[in-house]
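Progress note, sequence design subtask.
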């Protein structure tokens, strides 16, 4: 199975960019990998957050209802 990468642009405030560079350098990794790891951690946190999953389910249900109305 082929792994696909999606490229995106992230605009960071100067101070945050400098801190990210420093953390990545100390960890021996790239800022890109630091961002990937941070996103993975945040997504996992969101998946286990009951408030988040509850809000997501409500939004999905609302979107489903809207799409069903539009399809009529």
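Output:
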């Amino acid at each position: 199975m082929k792994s696909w990468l999606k490229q995106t642009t992230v605009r960071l405030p100067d101070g945050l960019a400098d801190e990210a560079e420093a953390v990545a350098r100390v960890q021996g990794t790239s800022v890109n990998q630091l961002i990937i790891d941070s996103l993975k951690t945040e997504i996992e946190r969101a998946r286990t957050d009951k408030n988040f999953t509850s809000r997501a389910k409500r939004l999905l249900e609302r979107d489903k209802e809207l799409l069903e109305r539009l399809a009529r």
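The longest helix spans residues 50-71. Work on this subtask will continue into the next period as scheduled.
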